[in-house]
């Protein structure tokens, strides 16, 4: 399936932020409308496969490691012993794979609303799905908002919200009620990680998210930034929210060992990511 003469350019155009990003593609391989979103898969000339949801770039074969490693390892190495981890969204399974690299993890549950995303990931991004058969992994298809609402109090060590932008089915993953459910479900030393968009383009969203997290009762927040070449502005962020106490020191030695098995994450990257640059310090 291809709309134009090959090769051509796929462009994610953001009118709201006055920016656009393009990848040169050979072919559009898939275009399907699920119950929740339009899913497209492209074969690019230089970035491998590309998954696009509702016109927004999600994952490419070449550079998804920045996002998946930084959504998981800083929080998991900050926690003293993460055992029970939940990923909300994350249907491409890349975050789940990173979580399962941690030997302390006994259960990792992924809840994505859209089974078609995972079907497409298994087919076009098999490297992200290679831990799906791990006996500690459970993959559920359903609404993450309801899942967190029904979660047992103080049952989880880490919750990672690897969601699409806050529109459509993921809108409720960014609000006060959802953060309240997460707070209740976390153990006292638990950590919530929320993908928090571009630190250049979406400062208002990050600020409001942080305010809501504090208002429901999280004790400490840390927004971290990292490169994300195919997302608007090329720089992305996630926000860590600690249920009780400070973040304290991370498990440096364990992180150093794990980093041999990572493309971007390392103890040095961890330390640097935990320091907010001035432009963001001023705006948050
Ligand atoms: N890395 C991407 C980003 O930052 O834009 C997001 C990754 S994508 C795998 C996000 C996933 O969130 C999608 O597969 C989508 O189906 C899922 N999602 C959206 N709303 C959801 C909800 N309410 N519950 C569970 N999953 C949801």
Q: What does the secondary structure layout of this molecule look like, with pairings?
A:
Blueprint: E1 8-14, E2 19-33, E3 38-44, E4 49-53, E5 56-60, H1 65-78, E6 84-89, H2 94-99, E7 107-112, H3 115-124, E8 137-141, H4 144-150, E9 156-162, H5 176-185, E10 186-195, H6 203-216, E11 220-227, E12 235-242, H7 252-259, H8 267-273, H9 278-283
Parallel strand pairs: 6-7, 6-9, 7-8, 9-10
Antiparallel strand pairs: 1-2, 2-3, 3-4, 4-5, 10-12, 11-12
The chain binds S-adenosylmethionine (SAM).
Question: Which architecture of the largest domain per CATH?
Answer: 3-Layer(aba) Sandwich
CATH superfamily caption of the largest domain = Vaccinia Virus protein VP39
- The CATH topology of the largest domain corresponds to Rossmann fold
Distance from first to last alpha carbon: 45 Å
Structural account:
There is one protein chain. The protein has nine helices and twelve strands. With 284 residues, the chain is α/β, with parallel strands linked by helices. The chain folds into two domains: 52 residues, Spermidine Synthase, Chain: A, domain 2 (Roll); 220 residues, Vaccinia Virus protein VP39 (Rossmann fold, 3-Layer(aba) Sandwich). The strands form two sheets. The chain has a seven-stranded mixed beta sheet, with helices on both faces. The N and C termini lie far apart (45 Å). The mean pLDDT is 95. The site of S-adenosylmethionine has 24 residues, from β6, β7 and α4. Belongs to the spermidine/spermine synthase family. Catalyzes the irreversible transfer of a propylamine group from the amino donor S-adenosylmethioninamine (decarboxy-AdoMet) to putrescine (1,4-diaminobutane) to yield spermidine. One of its GO terms (biological process) is spermidine biosynthetic process.
């Amino acid at each position: 399936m291809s709309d134009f003469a090959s090769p051509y350019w796929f462009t994610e155009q953001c009118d709201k932020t006055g920016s656009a990003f393009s990848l040169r593609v050979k072919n559009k391989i898939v275009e399907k409308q699920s119950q929740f979103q339009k899913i497209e898969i492209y074969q690019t000339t230089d970035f491998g496969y590309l998954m696009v949801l509702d016109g927004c770039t999600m994952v490419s074969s070449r550079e998804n490691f920045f996002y998946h490693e930084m959504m998981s390892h800083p929080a998991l190495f900050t926690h003293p012993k993460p055992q029970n981890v939940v990923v909300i969204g994350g249907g491409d399974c890349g975050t789940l794979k990173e979580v399962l690299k941690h030997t302390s993890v006994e259960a990792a549950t992924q809840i994505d609303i859209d089974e078609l995303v995972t079907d497409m990931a298994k087919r076009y991004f098999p490297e992200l799905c290679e831990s799906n058969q791990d006996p500690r992994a459970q993959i559920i298809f359903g609404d993450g908002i309801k899942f967190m609402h029904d979660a047992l109090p103080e049952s989880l060590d880490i919750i990672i919200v690897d969601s699409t932008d806050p529109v459509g089915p993921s809108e409720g993953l960014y609000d006060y009620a959802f953060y309240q459910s997460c707070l209740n479900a976390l153990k006292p030393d638990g950590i919530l990680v929320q993908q928090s968009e571009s630190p250049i383009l979406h400062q208002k969203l990050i600020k409001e998210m942080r305010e809501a997290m504090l208002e429901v009762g999280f004790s400490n927040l840390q927004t971290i930034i990292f490169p994300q070449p195919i997302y608007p502005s090329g720089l992305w962020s996630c926000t860590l929210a600690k249920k009780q106490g400070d973040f304290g020191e991370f498990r440096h030695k364990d992180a150093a060992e794990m980093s041999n098995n990572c493309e971007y994450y390392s103890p040095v990257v961890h330390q640097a990511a935990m320091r907010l640059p001035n432009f963001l310090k001023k705006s948050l």
